[in-house]
Amino acid sequence: MDQYRRRPEELPRNLYRVDYLGSQTTRTDEELKAADTTTFYGNSEREQGLFREAVQNHFTWSYRGRSPFVSFFSDWDHAAKWGRKEP
Questions:
Q1: Which of 13, 20, 10, 5 is nearest to 84 (CA)?
Q2: Which one of 3, 68, 69, 76 has the lowest number of neighbouring Cβ atoms within 10 Å?
Q3: Could you give the CA distance from residue 40 to residue 68 in angstroms, rounded to a whole number?
Q4: Alpha-carbon separation of residue 43 from 13, 40, 71, 76, 81 (angstroms)
Q5: What is the 3-state secondary structure (H, E, C) of 24-86?
Q6: CA 1, CA 12: separation in Å to the nearest integer?
Q7: 36 φ, ψ to 5°?
Q8: H/E element holding 27?
Q9: What is the pLDDT of residues 44-74, one digit of tens each?
Q10: Rounded CA gap, 7 and 17, in Å?
């Protein structure tokens, strides 16, 4: 899974989250929690395939399964536009 890792300097300085009714992500004052917090992906070829599938599912708006990811935007304008969309 090392190919998916990024050095800190490669990451965006700021991330923005749009909270909306129906989001799988739960939020408290202390944390954001993905809907699926139990799935673990190992280094086997099979598990890497499952990981890629989970990423694709997460970015497929019509997918309704539980996701192990929390979505963020790296661009404020993009997040604001997305937040103004009608559900």
A1: 20
A2: 3
A3: 9
A4: 29, 10, 23, 34, 37
A5: CCEECCCCEECCCCCCCCCCCHHHHHHHHHHHHHHCCCCCCCCCCCCCCECCHHHHHHHHHCC
A6: 20
A7: -105, 105
A8: strand 26-27
A9: 999 999 999 999 999 998 898 999 999 999 9
A10: 21
Q: Are 15 and 73 in contact (CB under 8 A)?
A: yes
- In the chain, the amino acid numbered 17 is R
Tokens read off for 79: 């997040």
According to the model, what pLDDT value does residue 5 have?
85
Count the residues in the chain: 87
Q: What is the identity of the amino acid at 72?
A: F
pLDDT in tens, 28-38: 899 999 999 99
Per domain, the residue ranges of the chain are 2-84
> What's the pTM?
0.79
